[in-house]
Amino acid sequence: MGVLVRQRPKGKGNPWWVFINHDGERQAKKIGDKAAAEVVAKEIRERLAQNDFQIGTQKKVPTFGEYSRKWLDGYAETHLKYSTCKGYDCILRIHLQPLMDRQIDQIARTEIKDLIYAKLKDGLAPATVSRIKAVISGVLSHALEDGLVSANPASRLGRQIKGKDRKADINPLTREEARALLATIAEHHPRYYTFFMCALRTGMRLGELRGLEWGDIDFRGGFIEVRQAYVKGQITTPKNHKRRRVDMSPQLAET
Questions:
Q1: CATH 3.40.50.2300: does it fit domain 64-160?
Q2: Cα–Cα distance, 122 to 116 (Å, whole number)
Q3: Which has the closest alpha carbon to 64: 145, 149, 126?
Q4: What pLDDT, on the 0 to 100 scale, is given for residue 183?
């Protein structure tokens, strides 16, 4: 049995809630200010002690899997880039299966920490594990706002993810190697010659190259405006959400 008073979300002007956990049932009531919430909580505690309080008919508390799908289809798809949503969907399907059948209000902080440690031991890069943790925390933060949990057990767990990301050895092509590559493409795959020329001369990302349109090229100014990318079958914004210009060499402009 427990009655807790919490502000959700924390911050000046935000409402105070009373969270009730009794006989395996949970209920959250949005009251208003802290003083009023404390009064209501006191009354509920007294009535519970006298066995004179009934929690109303409750909706079934969803599993993490059920609620994460709702979160992904709702918040994520309306607020995040398409490619980000696809990445989160992949994380949920591949890395978070141990949580999927767990009732969302029964997930403990130790459970999430154990999952983080297991992913690190499996050899995943800290940056990847941080994204996994961010998805868990994002789902639970929304569950907190919806009154399904009284706290987010995944908050402030970033310090548990230590270690340096493995940096790929970057070995760019030399000028001679780049010329040889373009010559080979021109001979065997001429259709893709301009594509590879643009990649070598501008350093644009693959999705940005695939999303390039004629209107993005300014021949008079000698530059390309990178304003979109083609990722996972969808046109989206560049990785940092900002347009940018890249210079064209005379050879690329001629090509």
A1: no
A2: 10
A3: 149
A4: 96
